UniProtKB/TrEMBL annotation:
<dbReference type="InterPro" id="IPR010239">
    <property type="entry name" value="CHP02001"/>
</dbReference>
<protein>
    <submittedName>
        <fullName>TorF family putative porin</fullName>
    </submittedName>
</protein>
<keyword id="KW-0732">Signal</keyword>
<dbReference type="Pfam" id="PF09694">
    <property type="entry name" value="Gcw_chp"/>
</dbReference>
<feature type="signal peptide">
    <location>
        <begin position="1"/>
        <end position="32"/>
    </location>
</feature>
<dbReference type="InterPro" id="IPR006311">
    <property type="entry name" value="TAT_signal"/>
</dbReference>
Amino acid sequence: MSHDYRRDFRASTVAALLLAGGALGWPAVAHAQTSGSLTLASAYDARGVVLSSRPVAQLRVEHDTDSGWYAGGFASPVMLGRAPTQAELIVYGGFAHQLASGLSWDAGVSRTSFLRDTRYSYSEIYAGLATDNASARLFLSPDYFGGGRSAYLDLNASHPLNDKLRLTAHAGLKHAFGAYPGDGRDRVDLRAGLALGLDRWTLQASVGSLQKSRGYEYARARQFLFSASMHF
């Protein structure tokens, strides 16, 4: 029997709409703010691994309170190996606080779920520091992609060229604790690009590379990405 890819697309779309509706429908609290973005991207690259080599539409929503608590979600279609297209859903929540120096810190938990290949779903805890133009976050997972304990250090920076255009840079280091079938123990991913802000839109172009200790089936050594995001 042939696979119904249209059903997978409809399921991904419905999941994204439910995610957005749930976040936008939360009860209002004083000084609370709900924001989001809809992104069209040429591909989906996460932590140096291509989760979709085809164009994708992605949705992100987040709800922040004046007390520092926040929660949000992200939805995107993905392709894991030769499996049919499916939906990836990420929900997260935590607490953020800005210090008098301008430095801010945050900590929280997240859950990444794959609606078809549920064995790859995983949870993480994270903590980080940020300034206006740089951030660092450490993620810890007890069962990353179903492969065991893992840590990921996420570093990001940007430099404004003018009031609309800025340089962006990313570096990530993944380390697996113990056996991790089909992957190297350590992996470094790098990305550099340009981001153009136009009112409610952000246009981005970037190139990324992957440095790995051993072969990884779904990784690419170099990946060009283009995206357009509408913020609401």
